[in-house]
Amino acid sequence: MVVATPAHSGVGEALSYRSERPLDVGALVRVPLGAREVLGIVWRCDNALPEGLAPDQARDVAQVLDALPPLDSPWRDLVAFAARYYQRSLGEVALAALPPPLRDLTPEQLARRLKRPARAAAPDTPADGARELSAEQAAALAAIDSADAPALLFGATGSGKTEVYLQACAHALARDPAAQVLVLVPEINLTPQLEERFRARFAAAHGSDAVVSLHSGMTPPQRLAGWIAAHTGRARIVLGTRLAVFASLPGLKLIVVDEEHDPSYKSQDGARYSARDLAIYRAKVAGARVVLGSATPSLESWHASEQGRYRRLAMPSRIGGGALPRLRLVDMNHQPKGALIAPPLLAAMAERVARGEQCLVLINRRGYAPVLACHACGWKSGCPHCSAFRVFHKLDRTLRCHHCGFTQRVPRACPDCGNLDIEPIGRGTEQVEEQLAGLLADARRPDGDPARVARMDADTTKAKGSLEAQLAALHAGEVDVLVGTQMIAKGHDFRRITLVAAINADAALFASDHRAPERLFALLLQAAGRAGRDAAHADASELWVQTWHPEHKLFSHLRAHDYPGFATAELADRAAAAMPPFAHQALLRADARTQEAAQGFLKAAARAAQALPERAAVTLYPAVPLTIQRVANVERAQLLIESDSRAAMQRFLSAWQPLLLQSRSAPEARGLIRFAVDVDPLAV
Ligand code: ADP
Ligand code: ZN
Ligand code: ZN
Known about the structure:
The chain has 19 helices and 29 strands. About 45% of the residues are buried. The structure holds adenosine-5'-diphosphate (ADP) and zinc ion (ZN) (2 copies).
């Protein structure tokens, strides 16, 4: 018998244990590992011990958690695929896919937990019936119902994608009394809202505990309860963030990935999996349908729909016919020098405020200023532990490192030369909020009060419940101008906002990250799409962008709300540069005490690869330091691997893995802390 245990990279794939009685494959067991007893999953059962293992070497299975049905074969297939594809050990991925409390429960505790009645039904949500679909929605739904390929639901913001998900879900549940549906969303913040809508729709027919959520913001007992509900089939609909892609769903018939372009579907530590890509694989092995939805699909998914691998379903029209906002480009070359907000934009904002409408100002940096500097000697507010500047937060007068968290009070004078005149350089949300309040001092609301400017970013929403409170204030009309980072552009419905402004969009146009234009385009189109949904304001709503490069081709597509045009142009660039999705990439990353050791390990690994026949089908680039080379006193470097074949890349990485482990002990790798492989990295 073979059991997958929490193996750290380097430990073999599975371990062998003995059991007197036959066990089901997929059963959960507790087994001894060294001096501890750990949770394991039966991965294979053999009558004979593996060759080379003497009977007295194999230890006995300690306990079987037989109150739980075994994990089914599609689930095990998914986990095995994820481990293989993302170059992690099977045990690590399998165990990480289970809710943490399961690791510590004895069979008796588990049996008691299972007998406990389902948690008290959620407060009654008013029931909500299915809407009559628009022609575009009906066509999309019919295609999803009959699709044999993954569907890409390309629907404008406000085109009613959620209604299509809801009805596709209803159809799946109606077709099969044991059917289950998995709905993935990018943000924890979006799950309560969505859970409400799904519960309102399905509670009447399927009971109020038919809908459960699974995300990292839940307490361990909540996650366990949700997982058990899914695993035992009691939950018919599971809503969750990326980790929910691993939920055990024996009746899985439909997977929805909402806002499929969102980068948060890619995990950035441990197994660096893409929940969107795993959803596609999972649907295939489970025989389920899968729908990816977005107004601005990832170029990968768009490309797949161009090739016919995904079936594209377009819903270009907004429900209620509201027009999409008009683009107003402000050419900063012709504005007063140093202007934060160009005069025409400021005038437009004052006008909105006077009409009782709201404005949203997007800026990509929180804090007051990204750097504090001394002009006398050139001192800058660097972080002593990172190769990055500490951000000036004026409100509590601190310098904070956004990478390692190192925080200090702002010095009274320059620490190097004693100059009292140290100044912020650049602008963050705090400063924009402060300056806007000044710039709009003369603007009046319809009630005669001065304009109210507020800010919303990771700093103002840290406390539990503060995001909800701020959103409520916004919806109640207590705020006229909201300044925030991109987090505010996601998912929320801003009915009374009729002006969205991006005041420093240029950074993304010339970033070294080849996905930056795609992100900017998605952000602006999404933010604009959230604005002015109320028909009364819709025609007047505008998207303002301040730029020094108004001629950039991104803006002509944005002006026409032409995502397909943008995608075609970007894909042509990517093809010309042999970038994804036309090439496949992986990164080998190394963290070490010194940059020499980090790169030394990478070089040793690259040298070791020379011996592999699989090496011929991939390109290995030289080891380089990361853009932010040092974080919390750890030096970071990476090596890019490219291939035009996904299969060749996979074969190479698998063959390389054991050599990576050996390269750790190369002399030049002394001081290496850890390494990791990132397959299909988001940024290189
Ligand atoms: P999307 O997710 O595509 O941005 P939503 O699903 O949020 O759009 O739909 C936008 C609005 O239109 C919502 O308020 C929704 O309740 C409403 N809506 C969707 N479909 C219909 C329909 N067929 N009839 C009437 N209202 C609808
Ligand atoms: Zn100085
Ligand atoms: Zn730091």
